[in-house]
Amino acid sequence: MRVYVASTTSGLRELLDTGLLGPPPLTAFAVTPGLREWYVDDEVEELEYAAMLEAARASLRLLDADDSAARRRVVVAADVPDAAVTFRDDLDRGVVRVATAIGLADLASVHVDDQAAEAAVTAAAEAITAADLGDPAAQDVVDDAEGFELSWYANQEIDALLELL
Predict the structure, then answer these.
(1) pLDDT at 96 exceeding the cut of 90
(2) Domain-by-domain residue ranges, the chain?
(3) 56, 73 in Cβ contact below 8 A?
(4) Of 13, 40, 69, 77, whose Cβ has the fewest other Cβ atoms within 10 Å?
């Protein structure tokens, strides 16, 4: 099953250093029954994109707590065994728990904001808690960051990407 794990540039560095994303259990996002019901689309690519956007929003929460990370949302897409995944739509749409460690070989891709998004992502990371609590002005700030598309990178490109940040 393809899962989307929220991360930061600090998390990517740790992934390269240890070879693992984790430790398990990991909270991630995937195409779940709750996401299908909310998104009301049968196109797998559209549903996976929606799951990735949920992970990108979760990356803002991680950035809010990680002062050392570059102000860019990071999402790691990985393929894990179906048996290792538990749906947790009771927590939020698309949420899953992954019971196994995710290694570099499991990565399908990494998605990261470009430099142009940094100011919007910085502001969104500072506003995400208020947005989660229903503040409409904070939600507008988060929406501004979510207007930026994440760029795609292969797992072999992670080291070079981090050198640029």
Answers:
(1) yes
(2) 2-118
(3) yes
(4) 40
